[in-house]
Amino acid sequence: MNPNEKRLEYPLGDTLAQPGAALELADGVRWIRMPLPFALDHINLWLLRDEIDGREGWTIVDCGVSRPEVQALWERIFAEALEGLPVLRVIVTHMHPDHVGLAGWICERWDAPLWMSMTDYFVARHWSQPDPADAGGATGEPAVRHFAAHGLQDPEALDQIRQRASYYPNLVGPVPASFRRLMHGDTLTIGGRPWQVIVGYGHAPEHVSLSCDALRVLISGDMVLPRISTNVSVFNFEPEADPLPLYLKSLDRYADLPQDTLVLPSHGKPFRGLHERIRQQHEHHAERLAEVVEACATPKSAAEIVPVLFRRQLDLHQLTFAMGEALAHLHALYFDGKLRRSQGDDGIYRFQTV
């Protein structure tokens, strides 16, 4: 456990939800844990006891990736954890594959509506199309050009990125043709209790978190995680983005939640210490930005900043996010006037301290 984690409280200790089972965390709130085919090997999903128009059942929050083994675990959940009641709706926090991947399948399986923010819904619909030329995300030829322009020159890494053009549609099944829009400040009644919608930016286009004051519970999605820092990246589909300030401002939307809030993150274990974790994230990024400014005393590309921010070996999946995050820190400083940017004769963008 790292020093930051020691300042958090894990009320369940080392207890984890088991595959294909649901673990009760609060009245009507159950934890599901599904596998992921990455170094980050799991995602947390949530079952909320609900009643809509007189029908009793469940709301599912997030769905896992579209893989047969994950569907099989869901079938066990449906058979053993729903108390014979139906799924009434599916809420997806954002458009990343581990969250939206099986949303269409679950919605069709239960004839249940999908609830999402509008931006993330349409991104998921667009990127999940089976045509590789239309696939989105940090893969394919557009991503190769983007990363190469920011200093990634290893031919093997670039070729692997090129070959992963179907990455998103391979992990995300068909997204429902209609949805119910969620917006910041909305109040949802789930299980007779009000849940507030908190929208955040920087990690995804329009990320939805859910807070229930009556239960002192926050379903934080990827916006607040206990062990790792939320990825904030600049990718090829928005090459001039400045997402880091958006993310840090979004964290402040949780500032008024109660001190004893139980945070249900998408990765890691449920914890208390929300305000401490927000403080840690602000401090973490302030330190990283200072390191980037120092490193850019001489011109640096994003690829040259990756080892400044990440002092460990990275696989290709991690490298694409590390490149995006390095560029997010460079852009935060560039748009704030602390770095200048130039493109060399080799086509690579480099940043230098003003």
From TrEMBL:
Full protein name: MBL fold metallo-hydrolase
Residue span(s) of domain Metallo-beta-lactamase: 42-267
Residue ranges of the TM segments: none
Gene3D superfamilies found in the cross-reference section: Ribonuclease Z/Hydroxyacylglutathione hydrolase-like, Winged helix-like DNA-binding domain superfamily/Winged helix DNA-binding domain
InterPro entries listed in its UniProt record: B_lactamase-like_C, Metallo-B-lactamas, RibonucZ/Hydroxyglut_hydro, Sec-metab_biosynth-thioest, WH-like_DNA-bd_sf
Annotated Pfam families: B_lactamase-like_C, Lactamase_B
Species this protein is from: Yanghanlia caeni
Record-linked PANTHER family: ENDORIBONUCLEASE LACTB2, METALLO-BETA-LACTAMASE SUPERFAMILY POTEIN
SMART domains: Lactamase_B
SUPFAM superfamilies in the cross-refs: Metallo-hydrolase/oxidoreductase
